[in-house]
Amino acid sequence: MSVYTEVERDELVAFLGEYAVGDLVSYEGISDGIENTNYFVTTTQGKFVLTLFEHHDFAELGYFLDVMTFFYQHGIPSAHPAADKQGQYLKTLSGKPAALVVRLAGRGVNTEATLGQCAEIGAILGEMHLAGKDFTARRATERGADWRQSTAETLLTHLDDDVTDMLRDELRVQSAYATLDLPWGVTHSDLFRDNALFDGDELTGIIDFYYASDEYLLYDLAVAVNDWCVDETGLPDQQRYQTMMQHYLEKRSLTQAEQANWNLVLRAAALRFWLSRLQDQIFPREGELTQIKNPDAFLKILRFHREHPLTLEFN
Ligand SMILES: Nc1ncnc2c1ncn2[C@@H]1O[C@H](COP(=O)(O)OP(=O)(O)OP(=O)(O)O)[C@@H](O)[C@H]1O
Ligand SMILES: N[C@@H](CCO)C(=O)O
Q1: Residue of 278, 170, 269 whose CA lies nearest to 223
Q2: Which of 113, 194, 283, 304 has the fewest beta carbons under 10 Å from its own?
Q3: What values do phi and psi take at 204, rounded to 5?
Q4: What is the pTM of this model?
Q5: Which pLDDT tens digits describe the chain residue by residue (315 residues)?
Q6: Residues 101/205, Cβ–Cβ less than 8 Å
């Protein structure tokens, strides 16, 4: 359940009156999602998703909405905000920062990805990384190497001994991450199966840009590989992996340094989501009534990458 803030009909009618989107027809809360309050909103002129931001402040939200608008304007099928009559994307509703985002067609992927879907995600991520070179706003990541180190330290005492030893060793290896010399720029940084919408094998949209930040481009690719390219046992699957990578590499080839550090970055991406899920499980945030995603899925992927480095040689 993810409606933390109830919006009254009168309030919504007044809010929509500030946009040129016609009159309210209907609205309903969206149960998916964890962070924010979301409603589907239908007006006489279109379909939208109204998001009330529960954790972010105005300053950083401006950045996210600019990222979404930028990618949309560069041909990436991204969720993007509607501007109100004053040209503003970010507004206030029920005391929360709020945006009216154009509703995209399609559905999230809630089973293992098809090869066609892996191909689409690989290609679009390559296109995003090329287009993103022209995006000039900067935002440091909140889930980077420093965060991984400090979060791991707070979690270590809550873990079993065998896991603790592995985590300590991984942190030692990961100490090289922050100073790698890899291409970087604006990234989605959370491009999971539930953050892309599909109609069959056709990508209709990318949503949830609220972890967008400056990161190594390779990290963005690693996040996607770790989630999309797994089989029903949750382990990396060669065919899905090869398909996603080949479609990515058709758009952007990897530098030598990227190739040399692929395993380290795949591990960093697995570590980030293992730690954030563990943190949500061990220290749940007050007032959040949603499902907690299983940390073990990423412990398993991290262990896999430590033992079986994925190659970059494809046939
Ligand atoms: N622009 C959009 N078009 C169509 N559907 C959308 C759009 N934005 C969000 N949705 C729907 O709303 C659901 C919740 O959105 P989202 O995943 O962004 O939630 P959140 O709470 O903001 O983020 P998170 O899942 O990271 O906690 C999505 O699963 C999707 O079904
Ligand atoms: N995509 C994340 C949640 C948002 O960061 C996960 O699956 O753990």
Answers
A1: 269
A2: 283
A3: -105, -20
A4: 0.95
A5: 467 899 999 999 999 999 999 999 999 999 877 789 999 999 999 999 999 999 898 888 999 999 999 999 999 999 999 999 999 999 999 999 999 999 999 999 999 999 999 999 999 999 999 999 999 999 999 999 999 999 999 999 999 999 999 999 999 999 999 999 999 999 999 999 999 999 999 999 999 999 999 999 999 999 999 999 999 999 999 999 999 999 999 999 999 999 999 999 999 999 999 999 999 999 987 655 556 789 999 999 999 999 999 999 997
A6: no
Architecture of domain 108-307: Alpha-Beta Complex (3.90)
Dist CA 107 CA 113 (whole Å): 13
| Domain 9-103 architecture | 2-Layer Sandwich (3.30)
Q: Which two tokens stand for residue 234?
A: 């949750």
Of 36, 198, 288, best ligand 1 pocket probe by most atoms within 8 Å of the beta carbon: 36
The residues, any chain, with a CB within 8 Å of residue 153's CB and separated by 6 or more, are none
CA of 76 to the centre of ligand 1 (A): 17
Residue 35 near ligand 1, beta carbon < 6 Å = yes
**Please, where in the chain does CATH 3.90.1200.10 lie?**
108-307
